[in-house]
Write a structure and sequence with these properties.
This protein has 73 residues and is mostly helical. It is rod-shaped, with a radius of gyration of 21 Å. It contains three helices and two strands. It has a two-stranded antiparallel ribbon with strand order 1-2.
Length: 73
């Protein structure tokens, strides 16, 4: 999964915050709540899925297009 979604940050005291504290800060402060965070995770998953399987998807679309062009008489 995308490690960018863990979002470490530097707090007001200049210290780097990592791990679950950084994740909770990102979810509830930056994202605006748990549902928005889940939406972001889902969008990242779908984008990655489509990117890695686009050749399979495109091959299937090409085959369907070829079938649609020819009529059986």
């Amino acid at each position: 999964m995308n490690k960018e979604l863990y979002r470490p940050y530097v707090n007001d005291e200049g210290k780097q915050v990592n791990g679950s504290a950084a994740l909770n800060h990102y979810i509830y402060t930056v994202s605006g709540g748990l549902q928005n965070y889940h939406d972001e995770i889902g969008a990242a998953y779908l984008a990655d899925f489509i990117k890695t399987r686009s050749d399979i998807i495109n091959d299937g679309l090409a085959q369907n297009a070829k079938k649609a062009k020819f009529k059986v008489i």
